[in-house]
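Re-run with default settings, no changes from the original entry. Doing this only to confirm the output is reproducible before filing.
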Amino acid sequence: MQNEDMTSGQEPEEGNVNIAFYIPKEQTIPTQLRIRVDNEIDVYYERLKDAFGFKFEFFKHQGVTMEMATEIVNEIVSRMVSQSYDHGAHWRECCVREIENAEFELSITVFFRVRDAG
């Protein structure tokens, strides 16, 4: 994967992937949040309704493997946790990730908790 960070305009640190938000041309009001990784992999994600977490979905027809999906989710989660500090929330990943490996898609669900203030 390319190592460019389109969100900051600076060269990313070693190991980072190019992650950019986008709205698809064929849909004016997206029903899920979307990220494009390295201009070729679409990641759909949404916040869980019944727990503090997010489900990330990938499509295998884009050549995504479980290893690639895990690497991408690790990078997104790292950024989410880092950004939570900016807003004073201090998120932490918790629990075990739920992984679904279906015929045409992969999904990884990540759970969070807010760090105790003490």
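Helices lie at 66-86. The longest helix spans residues 66-86.
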